[in-house]
């Protein structure tokens, strides 16, 4: 699946994230932020447009209602960050840690999580369109009551993920692995799985398979 990647200018001004703390309308545009630490802060309705962030730490920060457009995160720690009710479009997360991060009721479009740790992440009631999870750790992740359109899971760890009330029609999870999932038969209708996964899912749903 092809997605629209962040549209970034060739030249970016260097900034520090802490400069937006006291701004009435916190926003950063056309800049690069490197080795910035912005943990345990609360800054709602931040707007980032055409921004690259490298080696930054944002642990336990409240970014609810954030607007991210044309943004790339590289080697950043976003563990336990609150991204609830956010708008996230044309954004890349590369080699990032998002353990326990929260995206409920957010809108994500043309987003890629590449080689990221998303253990215990929550996307409940979020809308995801053209989102790629590539070699991501999604153990104990929560996709409850999400709206999916054009979602790709490539070689991910989906163990103990929750897909209740979320349709996986047309979604291919065959290259990913899991021992158990929380999922209903209705949610699986039209989902593409490998033959071994089909046996696992049947077993999870109480089907007795006889050789």
Automatic annotation (TrEMBL):
Pfam family name, one: Pentapeptide
Gene3D superfamilies per UniProt: E3 ubiquitin-protein ligase SopA (2.160.20.80)
Provenance organism: Lysinibacillus louembei
Coiled coil (UniProt feature): none
InterPro entries noted in UniProt: 5peptide_repeat (IPR001646), PA_immunity-related (IPR052949)
Protein name: Pentapeptide repeat-containing protein
